[in-house]
Design a protein that fits this description.
Rossmann fold; Alpha-Beta Plaits; about 425 residues; alpha/beta; 3 domains; elongated; four-stranded parallel beta sheet; magnesium
């Protein structure tokens, strides 16, 4: 199956991948899921040498795959010198313990693998704190698997008292660490909020999408600022913000962590502060890998994740990336299925002008044009218009200045409040 392993891969951890299919998942879907799990394993530093699919109506409560399949898995691991087995679902503590006993190998589930990848990729203080918090929250209910010293202290002289087990000590220490990390994240979030306040007067656009859809590559193609991009899952963890000048508007683009099927809930929770860039954006660019057979499902996963982080009901542009990998027939099919989407290739710089025009058109929907006469002495109002609007015409008549300008509706509300505050009864021409 996957026996041909390159010499360069000999030092990498050898892994087997296990998944189920049945009433709710077709075999084709399960195979695609294991292909994705293989990419995750590769990102974590493993080399996949075996994939195992089991047809079951539901996971076995004790061993996930059943005793017979577990024995087969142990045999395969011995024959192919496999160190680790990774399951495409989350396992219960009981399943983890029984599978480890049955295989004599290291066992990971999907969440623990993703958390391991995030831990290896975290660079900033915020990302490291968020990942550690998610790992501890994942670990807490599984402590019995990680510790063997669980018996109560022996009785006798000098041992009377609570007689606390090691597991209880560890649980208490982890609880304290979780509280400390949450407090640290709150402080980091206040810093982020302060930074975002300085950008409130600009249109904010956030790139979202399934991991490895090419968001960072698209960000680089638009802004030419060298955001880290790699053809691996979760290349980007921290949000990156860059200013981008278009023909009629200046915008702030932010690139955030990619989403994935079955993203651990604890990870979503701990990364919510990073994902504030998405929640507070004016426009979302939903980037999709056009070359993937699973594109419709990936779109659904992203939409579900946006709902989970409370970032729905936003103006969104669907952007199909990597169209250079499609034949003309597939491109036509994509245009028919998604007539309002923009088709691009960030790597080949195809369709970028069309994407910018779509962004400009969407921004214009939130703009309105006004003509006002304001006393020159009320320089605050005049300065506000020059700083926050596109002034199309300006002329002076006596002590008044007449301005024709296009302004975002949210900024016009601020202007109206300012005019009321400084006592200007502006004349709308």
């Amino acid at each position: 199956m996957l026996d041909d392993v390159k010499n360069s891969d000999i030092e990498r951890e050898r892994v087997a991948l296990v998944g189920l299919y049945g009433p709710d998942t077709t075999r084709f879907q399960a195979e695609e899921y294991l292909d994705e799990l293989e990419l995750l394993a590769d990102t974590a530093g493993g080399i996949t040498v075996e994939k195992i699919l089991q047809n079951k109506t539901h996971p076995d409560v004790s061993t996930y795959i059943g005793k017979g399949k577990l024995n087969e898995l142990k045999r395969i691991m011995g024959e192919k010198n496999i160190d680790t087995v990774i399951f495409d679902d989350d396992l219960t503590p009981t399943q983890l313990r029984n599978i480890e006993k049955g295989t004599d190998g290291k066992v990971l589930d999907r969440s623990s693998l993703i958390l391991d990848i995030f831990a290896g990729r975290a660079k900033t203080a915020a990302a490291k704190t968020q990942v550690e918090l998610a790992q501890l929250q994942y670990l807490l209910p599984r402590l019995t698997r990680y510790w063997t010293h669980l018996s109560r202290q022996k009785g006798g002289i000098g041992t009377k008292g609570p007689g606390e087990t090691q597991i209880e000590t560890d649980r208490r220490l982890i609880g304290k660490r979780i509280a400390t990390l949450k407090e640290k994240l709150e402080k980091l979030e206040k810093q982020r909020t302060t930074q975002r306040k300085g950008r409130e007067d600009m249109v904010r656009i956030s790139l979202v999408g399934y991991t490895n859809a090419g968001k960072s590559t698209l960000m680089n193609a638009l802004t030419e600022t060298g955001v880290f991009a790699e053809d691996r899952l979760f290349a980007t963890l921290d949000s990156t913000v860059r200013r981008h000048e278009m023909e009629n508007h200046s915008v702030l683009l932010s690139d955030t962590v990619g989403f994935i099927r079955k993203l651990p809930h604890n990870l979503v929770e701990s990364f919510k502060s990073t994902l504030d860039e998405v929640r507070e954006a004016d426009i979302l660019l939903h980037v999709v890998d056009a070359s993937s057979k699973m594109a419709p499902e990936y779109i659904e996963v992203v939409e579900e994740t946006l709902e989970e982080i409370e970032a729905t009901n936003k103006r969104t542009i669907l952007v199909f990336n990597k169209v250079d990998l499609l034949d003309p027939g597939k491109v036509s099919e994509l245009k028919r299925a998604y007539p309002n989407a923009v088709l691009v290739s960030a790597e080949q710089r195809i369709g970028l002008k069309e994407l910018e025009q779509s962004i400009e058109d969407m921004i214009e929907l939130e703009y309105s044009t006004h003509t006002m006469q304001i006393p020159v002495s009320k320089y605050k109002a005049v300065a506000f218009i020059h700083e926050n609007a596109n002034v199309e015409k300006e002329s002076y008549e006596g002590t008044d200045v007449e301005l024709t300008f296009s302004i975002a509706n949210k900024d016009f509300k601020q202007l109206s409040h300012l005019l009321d505050t400084i006592g200007v009864n502006s004349e709308v021409v």
